[in-house]
Amino acid sequence: MKDHIVCLAIESSCDETSAAVVVDGRRVLSNIISTQIDIHKAYGGVVPEIASRHHLNNINPVIDEALDSAGIGFKDLDFICVTNRPGLIGALLIGTASAKALAYALNIPLIGVHHIRGHICANYIAHPELEPPFTALVVSGGHSTLADVRGYTDYEIVGQTRDDAAGEAFDKVARVLGLGYPGGPLLDKLAREGNPEAIPFKRVYLEKDSYDFSFSGTKTGVLNYLNSKRQKNEAVNSADVAASFQAAVVEVLVTKAVRLAKDRGRDKLVLAGGVAANSCLRESLAKACEKAGIKLFAPPPVLCTDNGAMIGCAGYYEYMAGAKDEKMNLDAFANAPLE
Ligand code: KG4
Ligand code: ZN
C-alpha cells in the first residue's frame, strides 16, 4: 500500500460546481468552487435546469483547475469520489457522469458519497483532532438533520425537518423582506441591527421527546405579521423581523441539538451545512455547549457551504471502510437516507 491516498472529489448537487484534491481524507491540496449564485439571483432561487447546464460547462475546467492547483496529474490519483445523493437530479448526474468517465479511463475506483455525510466530514478537515462519536446538527438549504455519528461511516438519523429546511425558511423569509438571494447570509447581516425579542414568533418543538423540526409555522408567522402590518398601513422594522425570526429558529435548533448530545452522552457537538455559517446560531450554540460541558466544532464558512473537499474527506473514510467500487454502475438519487 502507498504511504498516502490521493483522491479527486467532485460535488455538483445544487448550484456549486466543485472539485478538490484531498490526501488521506483531511489534507486539502485544492478546493475549487465555481458558484452559480449570480445566475440564479435573477430568479430568486435555484432553477434546476439552468443549474445542470452550467455544471456541464464548468465541470471540466473546475476539475482541471483542482489538479493544477494541487500540482498533480491524473496518474497520481488513487480513487475518485463524487456526490451521488441527495440533490437536484440533473445537477447530480453531471458530476456522476464526469466522475464515471474519469474513473473508467484511469481504471481507478469510484465511490459515491452522500452529500450530508460530506457536510459533517467538513469538520474533520477543519479540526484535525476531531474523531467520532459525536452529535451532528446539519442545517442547509435542503436539510435540517440531527444525527448521532457513531463512527466515520456509521450514522444514525435521530431527527429531521418535517417541512421546510432551516436554510429554506431563512431564504423564504429573506425574500418576503425583499433582501434578495441567497437570503440566509443577508438575513443574518440585517438581524444584527434588530432586536431578537421584538416579535415573539412561534417556537415549534413538536411532541415532547421529538428531535424533528418544523419551520414552516414560524415562517408563516412572519408572513402573517407582515400582512397584518401592511393592512393596517403600519411601518415594518425589517431588522427586528429578521432578528426575531432568526432567534425563533435558532432557539429550537440549539435546544434540540444540545438535548440529543446529553441524551446520548456525547461530549462533542458538530455543526455543519450552509446555515452553520449563521452568526446567531454559532454564538447561541457555543454558549449552550459551554454551559452543558460539550465541545462545539464548526467549519469555517468556506467549508460550510457546498464544496468538493468535504466530499473528498467523506469519500476517503468510505474508501478505507471498503466501500464498493461502483465504476460504471454508479447512479444518482434525488433523495437518499443518511444511514
Ligand atoms: O449547504 P448549502 O450550501 O447547500 C445545500 O446543501 O442546501 O446551504 C445553502 C443554504 C442556503 O439556504 C443559504 O441561505 C444558507 O445555507 N446560509 C445561511 C447563511 N449562509 C448560508 N443561512 C443563514 N445564515 C447564514 N449566514
Ligand atoms: Zn449542501
Give the overall pLDDT as a whole number.
96
Please state the structural category: alpha/beta
Work out the number of β strands: 10
Largest sheet: 5 strands, mixed
What is the CATH T-level topology of the largest domain?
Answer: Nucleotidyltransferase, domain 5
How many discrete domains? 2
Query: Rg, please?
Result: 20 Å
Oligomerization state of this entry?
single chain
Just give the CATH class of the largest domain.
Answer: Alpha Beta
- Molecules bound to protein: 5'-O-[(R)-(carboxyoxy)(hydroxy)phosphoryl]adenosine, zinc ion
Classified in CATH, the superfamily of the largest domain is ATPase, nucleotide binding domain
Strand order of the largest sheet: 3-2-1-4-5
Q: What's the CATH architecture name of the largest domain?
A: 2-Layer Sandwich
Element order: H for helix, E for strand? EEEHHEHEHEEEHHHHEHEHH
Q: What is the count of helical runs?
A: 11
Strand content: 15-25%
Shape: globular
Taking pLDDT < 50 over at least 5 consecutive residues as the criterion, the unreliable ranges are none
Estimated helix fraction? 40-55%
